[in-house]
Amino acid sequence: MSYTTERASLIRDLDRVAKARHDAARCLSKIVTTLTQAESEGESTSGKLGLETYIEDIELARKNLQHGVFRLLVLGDMKRGKSTFLNALIGENLLPSDVNPCTALLTVLRYGEEKKVTVYFKDNKPPEKLDFTTFKEEYTIDPDEAKKLEEEKKQAFPDVNYAVVEYPLPLLEKGIEIVDSPGLNDTEARNELSLSYINNCHAIMFVFRADQPVTMAERRYLENYIKDRGLSVFFLINAWDEIRKALIDPDDAEELQEAENKVRQVFRTNVSEYCQLDGQDIYDDRVFEICSIQALRRRIKNSEESLEGTGFPEFMNALNTFLTKERATAQLRQAITLAQQSYHRVRSAIERRIPLLEQDVEELKRRIGSVEPEFKKLTEIRDRFKDEIASTRDKKARAIADSFKEYILNLGNTFESDFLRYQPNIGFLDSLSKGKREEFNAAFKQAFEQYLNDKISAWELTAERQLQDAFGQLSQSASEYGSAYTKVANAINEKLIGSKLHAAQALGYEDNSPAWASWAMGFFSLALGNVAGIALAGAGFDWKNILVNSLAVIGIWSFLSIFSISLITGPIGVLLLGLGVGALQAEQARKELIAATKKEFVKYLPQIAQEQWQSVHQAVKDCFDAYDREVTKRINDDIKSRQAELDNLLEQKLSREINRDSELKRLKSIDAEVLSEYRNLESVYEDLLLFNA
Fold it and tell me: Is the dihedral of CA 375, 376, 377, 380 positive or negative?
C-alpha cells in the first residue's frame, strides 16, 4: 500500500467532497433566493407566506457547507513526536520538531496562498502578523519560566487567544485544518488550554510513543477528558521503529516479532476501553503503529517515495474513510433535512393560499376567526412544553448541585488512597534538604492541583450524563408535543380550506413534524456526537459548551484560593523541619504529611461545597434556559408565521383586487423552483454516496 497513493486518494476524495459541498451550498442558495424573492413579491400580491425562519436556517446551513472545514486536533504528552508526525502527514518539514515544549499557544494550521503566522488576541485587540522565526522567538517560553508562571497562577500570554499558521499545501487547500496543541504533560494551565479545544474539533489524533507505553499521565488524560465523551479519536503509536533499536540483535526477526507483540498487548490493554462505539470494539480501526521520522525523511528525500512500512498509508486510508464518507455524508444529510422541512412548509402555505384566494373578504374573515381556538391550543402546547422544561430544569439543577455537594464532602473519605498516584516524583529524603525543599513544595502543590482537576473532571462527566438523560427525555417530549401540535395545525387547515394538506407526501415521506419539534429532537443527536443533529440545532445550541463555560468558576483555584497558603506553610513546612534522615522516619513523615494534608483539606470541604452549590445550580439552569429560549422562539415564530400568513392575505384583499391567475402561476412557480433545488440537492447527496460505496 503506497502512502503516495493514499495521500493522493485523500486529496482527490476531499476535492470531491468540497465540490459536493459547493454544489449543495449552491442549491441551498437558490432556495434562499427563491424564498426571499417570494416574500418580497408577496407584499404586492397575495401577501407573504411567513417563511422568514426557514430562510434564516437554510442560509446558516449554506454558510456552514460553503465555509466548512474538517478540523483535526493533535494531542499527546511532550516529546511524543507530534510535530514530526504532522510534518510527515502534510508532506513537508513545516513545523519545527525541535521547538521548546513550552510553546504555550494553540496553533491552527490552515491553507493560505502565502506562508505566514497570525496571532489572535482577546478583547478585540487587532491580530498580529509574523514570520515563522519571529513567532517561534516571541511565543516560546523556557520550562523554568513556565513553572514559575504556574506557581504564580499567571498565564504566559494572557491576552492571546490562538495562532494561525497559513501555508499553501494541497491537503490544507481541500478543507483540512490541523490544530497543534502544547504538550499535555506540562503545567495544568496549558493542559486546560489544549483540552478546552476538544469539543471544537471533528477528530482527535492522540499520539503515544512505542518506547514509552501509556504513561500514568496519558492514562489520566484519556480517563478524564476522552472516555465516554462521544469523541472521534485516532490513537497513533509513534516511533514504532524504536522497538527494533532496543533489541540486542535488531536483525533477529523472531526477537523483533516478540518485542512488538508485547508492546501491542500493552497498548491494547490500556487503550481498548477508549475504542468502544455503541458497544462495538473499533480498536483495529482507530489504533495505528507509525514511524513518523522515517516517513518524514523519505518524504523530504523524495516526495513520491512509498511510505510502506511506516504505518502512514493505513492511517491515511482510515482518515479518508472517516472524513469523506462518515462526516461528509452526514453533513449533506443535514442540508437535505433542512431543505425537506422548508419545502414542506412552502408547499403547505401554497396549498392553503390557493383555495383562500377564491374567498371574498367576509368569508375569509369568518374562516380566520373560526381557527382562533386552534391557535390558542398551539400556544397551550407551547406553554405545557415550557412548563415541562422548567420543571425538568429545577429538578435537575437541584439534583446535580446536591450531587456536587455530596461529592465534595466525601472527597476526604478516599483522599489518602486517591492521592497516592499523584505524589511528587522528587524523593522524600531529598526534600528534607534545604535546597530541595522549595522544589518539593512546588511539586507537591502541582500534584495536589492535578488531583483536584481530575476529581472535578470525574464529577463533571457524571453531571453531563445526568443532563444527557434529561435532554433525552425532553427530546421524547418534544416528539409528543410536536405530534399534538401537528394535529391542531391540521385542524386549522381543514377549517380554512375544507381538506387536509398533502405536502409531506409530495416528497415521499410521512414525517410532518413541525420544524421546531424536529429541532428540539434533533439537537439531542448533536449532544450524542451525531453530526446529523447539527442541522436541526441550527441556532447553535450546545448544552455541553454552556455547561463547561458556566462551570469554569468551579476549578482548582476555587479550592486553592482558600487553603493553599496553609497547605504549603502549614503541614509541609512543619513536617520538614527537624526530621531525621532515616528511611523509616522519612516514610513515617510522608504518611504524616498526607494525613496533615487530608486534615487541612477536609476542614475546608464544607465551605467549598456550600459556596459552589449555587454556581453548579446556576450552571445547570443555564443549559435548560438556553434550550427553553430557543424552543420558545421557534414555536412562537411558527405560530406567528401561520397567523401572519392569513393576516397578510386578508390585508391584501382589503387593499386591492388580487389577480388570481397571475398569483396562481407565481405560487406554483415558487413550489416548482424549491422542489427542483431540493431534487438537485438529493442528486448531489446520492452521487457522493455512490462514489463512497
Answer: positive
Neighbours of 675 (CB within 10 A): 17
Taking the C-alpha atoms of residue 555 and residue 551, their distance in angstroms, rounded to an integer, is: 8
> Structure pTM?
0.78
CA atoms within 13 A on the CB side of 2: 8
Distance CA 485, CA 471 (A): 20
- 144: burial class by Cβ within 10 Å (0-12, 13-18, 19+)? exposed
pLDDT score of 666: 96
- Give the closest residue to 550 by CA, choosing from 458, 463, 462: 463
CB 168 within 8 A of CB 112: yes
DSSP per position, 276-324? EETTEE-HHHHEEE--HHHHHHHHHH-TTS--TTSSHHHHHHHHHIIII
Listed residue (516, 492, 513, 493) closest to 504, CA to CA: 513
C-alpha cell at 555: 476549578
253: which 3 cell numbers? 526477526
Classify residue 168 by its DSSP letter.
Answer: -
How far is it, in rounded angstroms, from Cα 683 to Cα 494? 34
* Long-range pairs of 30-35 with CB within 8 A, sequence gap ≥ 24: 30/673, 30/677, 31/58, 31/339, 31/342, 31/674, 31/677, 31/678, 32/58, 32/59, 32/62, 34/670, 34/673, 34/674, 34/677, 35/342, 35/346, 35/670, 35/674
DSSP 8-state symbol, 169: -
User: Please, are residues 53 and 641 in contact by the beta-carbon 8 Å criterion?
Assistant: yes
Helix, strand, coil abundance in the chain, percent, nearest 5: 70, 10, 25
Q: What count of Cα atoms within 13 Å lies in the side-chain half-sphere of residue 14?
A: 23
At 404, give phi and psi (nearest 5°): -65, -45
For residue 210, what are the contacts with CB-CB under 8 A and spacing of at least 6? 237, 238, 239, 240, 242, 243, 263, 289
Closest CA to 517 of 672, 341, 398, 299: 341
Asked if 538 contacts 61 with a C-beta cutoff of 8 angstroms, the reply is yes
Bridging pattern class, strands 280-281 and 128-130: unpaired
pLDDT single digits (tens) 216-255: 778 878 887 787 777 789 999 999 999 988 888 888 889 9
Q: Within 10 A of 309 (CB to CB), how many other CB atoms are there?
A: 15
Least Cα distance to 311 among 70, 87, 11, 85 occurs for 85
Q: Are 602 and 479 in contact (CB under 8 A)?
A: no
Q: How many CB atoms lie within 10 A of CB 290?
A: 26
- What is the C-alpha separation between 288 and 211, in angstroms, rounded? 15
One-letter amino acid at 420 equals L
Angstrom distances, CA of residue 107 to CA of 124, 139, 159, 195, 484: 19, 11, 15, 13, 49
Residue 229, number of CB atoms within 10 A of its CB: 15
Residue 107, CA atoms < 13 Å, CB-side half-sphere: 26
Q: What is the pLDDT of residues 452-508, one digit of tens each?
A: 877 877 887 788 888 888 988 898 899 899 999 999 999 999 999 988 776 555 555
By mean pLDDT, which of 99-103, 113-117, 126-130, 618-622 is the weakest? 99-103
Position 570: which residue type? G
| Strands 70-76 vs 107-111: parallel, antiparallel or unpaired | unpaired
Grid cell at residue 574: 512543619
